[in-house]
DNA sequence: TGGATTTAATTTAGACCCTAAAATAAATAT
DNA sequence: ATATTTATTTTAGGGTCTAAATTAAATCCA
């Protein structure tokens, strides 16, 4: 007459406590209760279990406490050494590897220059295996158990099957990367879109919390997007992120890297801006189909300094972005649109034309209450997001299994 | 030492049982258990409560049973007389009122021709109050308790506040209709987008179930859309449906009813098709800015019969639709797109151009596994959906209160 | 210095809800 | 008539939560 715990409430509450600790840092049991709408008696019970499993630890009480009457709070925090995850970011000509501990903090980070477009599928897998093995030994040296690996890539991914469908960083398509790595390293491997990783981080920041429908647009070589509904990335049929960059501005318009014409990206992606600029401006030489950060900064400088040709190019990009945004607003009607990515460097030069385009495209009733703001770009954010997503996935998995 | 039932599982299970009965009709306790993943002991307990409240009834056992061994199933069903709801559909020049019983069946339906565009806000409210009062007395005559009213309208609605933001059927904007009617009739009044109503019905049909991300496009005078995620309408910041019709095909293009240019609707809405057609074809006279069903059928006939001018017009509309669809696929990546509404009459004449436009706009990786199919149009579907939504809302409310 | 007060964490007692198993019910098969 | 089968109800018990009571650990104040 026993029963399996078909009841999910303990499971949910445990996850909520862990998530709160990871997002907000050390907290007292009372506060964890209030924050998650459960009684502190329950938090006591949950934290006892987690302590016993070594996943959390009590903070020594000598920490500077907010003075006040009453028994002082005993803060609990995630035990960093309880586990670790590795996040690998694959972007054009670069590979970043980051090790994160169980509290979600970055433990180690390294960058490698790689001619990604020249890789074959086998090359890529070999490279990933080699580099991951290296950082894994680092992690294992400090007695941390590797519980998951995350591959964060630009492009279209089928996250459920772990297949990379298409990425601007690679010259091949449809590679089932995750299953191969799972087998090699014996732990779950997630394949995630880079925009989803960043959006997951941004959504937890106080400034952007409280917006149930959030769109994060990533400007860069290409243009990506993530749609978060109540903080969780919306994955369509593909299991991929939304492809804002390939929504249309002008049927039959400019040539896009995807092979089609008229995509927003073909006007506002780095390569598109640089391509146009080279026609009329003196700019640093180099692979202008894949402009470097230095090249893009040179171009952006020109626009900021008032060069009319450069300004015209950014304005046209802003207009394309604005029309894309108009479609996003009409179809998705988000509460907040965040514009970020390395391409925000040129946002100031695009913003006015973008806003004009939105006003030209949509009646105010359809623009609704949506706010559009830009947000500074941090190159480590992708991996931090990947780490957070992976930890959350493995926590959830562990609880459902046991 | 008592506790409020903060636990939601009974609540959820009760709603699930009611929903299953409403969608699938009479069912046995065992099957309700299997269908909803709960034990039949729990179903027994839940159905005992519902029987006691008079919300369900056991079917007399003399119904033709599927022969077989063992104790026969006792089917239970929702008690139609337990409650009723009224759904009012407001569309251009027409008002439909439907009474639905607790099982979700249509009890009564009536149509009224009304020059909706000539109404003032006060006129509209007076008209609604009068007509609703009429059908309410019908319902009350059969001893049914009116538990909710649904207003289903074309256009943009803020469903949380009950404000009609903008509708093509009306010449004014921003009317807080629901609060007024709530006060007048003393029951919850929901304001819903018509596409959401229809989509809610379609999503429960076996043929379209099992698609977690479903887009329903409504062709008609204007073009509406509803996005369902796991069967529930996605409401953005506005609380409104997605406005596919006003996504852009051609910046600076054809004049749209919304006041802007280049919207998909300005090419593929009834008024847009008829406007173009009148330039080159002999067609029935009448208010060609608001073509009647007869006028649209005449135009559609011409295209079906091979008239090249008519065919060209539909092809251009299909192309606009295709580009809009491309953006929908890029941004939302639904599993299934259903095209319906009165405008499906012309779907055959648009389909090829539409498909070509999608292929022209998007690489196959971004089209992904999405299927696009049309679906026959039934003018009562909106109200049936409104009734289902309202019953579900009032059931849920009742349970959370008690 | 020592109670009074305040706040945090834990323990206790009880309610709710679910499930598996047992019991009961109601049919068909032989 | 009895065995078998399937549905429903009853029973017993476990899990989880919460409110209240208790315990713990500090400050306040005389």
UniProtKB/TrEMBL annotation, chains A, B:
This is Xyl repressor. InterPro entries: ATPase_NBD, ROK, WH-like_DNA-bd_sf, WH_DNA-bd_sf.
């Amino acid at each position: 007459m026993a029963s399996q715990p078909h009841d999910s409430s303990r499971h949910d509450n445990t996850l909520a406590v862990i998530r709160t600790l990871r997002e907000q840092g050390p907290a007292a049991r009372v506060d964890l209760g209030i924050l998650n709408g459960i009684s502190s008696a329950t938090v006591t019970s949950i934290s006892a279990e987690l302590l016993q499993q070594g996943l959390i630890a009590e903070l020594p009480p000598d920490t500077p406490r907010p003075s006040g009457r009453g028994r002082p709070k005993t803060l609990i925090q995630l035990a960093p050494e309880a586990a670790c995850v590795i996040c690998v970011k694959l972007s054009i000509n670069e590979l970043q590897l980051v090790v994160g501990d169980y509290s979600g903090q970055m433990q180690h980070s390294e960058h490698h220059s790689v001619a990604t477009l020249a890789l074959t599928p086998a090359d890529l897998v070999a490279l990933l295996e080699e580099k991951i093995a290296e950082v894994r030994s680092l992690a294992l040296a400090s007695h941390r158990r590797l519980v998951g690996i995350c591959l964060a890539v630009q492009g279209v991914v089928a996250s459920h099957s772990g297949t990379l469908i298409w990425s601007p960083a690679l010259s091949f398509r449809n590679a089932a990367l995750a299953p191969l790595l799972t087998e090699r390293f014996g732990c779950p491997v997630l394949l995630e879109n880079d925009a989803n990783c960043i959006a997951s981080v941004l959504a937890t920041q106080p400034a952007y919390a409280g917006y149930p429908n959030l769109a994060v647009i990533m400007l860069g070589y290409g243009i990506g997007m993530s749609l978060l509904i109540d903080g969780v990335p919306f994955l369509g049929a593909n299991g991929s992120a939304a492809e804002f960059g390939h929504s249309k501005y002008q049927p039959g318009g400019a040539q896009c890297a995807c092979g089609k014409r008229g995509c927003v990206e073909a006007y506002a992606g780095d390569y598109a801006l640089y391509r146009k600029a080279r026609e009329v401006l003196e700019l640093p030489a180099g692979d202008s189909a894949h402009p470097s950060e230095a090249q893009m900064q040179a171009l952006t400088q020109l626009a900021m300094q008032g060069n009319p040709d450069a300004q015209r190019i950014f304005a046209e990009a802003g207009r394309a972005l604005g029309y894309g945004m108009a479609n996003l607003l009409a179809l998705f009607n988000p509460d907040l649109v965040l514009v970020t990515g390395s391409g925000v460097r040129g946002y100031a030069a695009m913003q006015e034309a973008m806003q004009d385009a939105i006003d030209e495209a949509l009646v105010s009733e359809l623009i609704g209450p949506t706010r559009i703001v830009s947000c500074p770009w941090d190159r480590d954010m992708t991996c931090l997001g990947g780490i957070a997503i992976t930890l959350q996935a493995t926590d959830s998995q562990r609880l459902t299994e046991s």
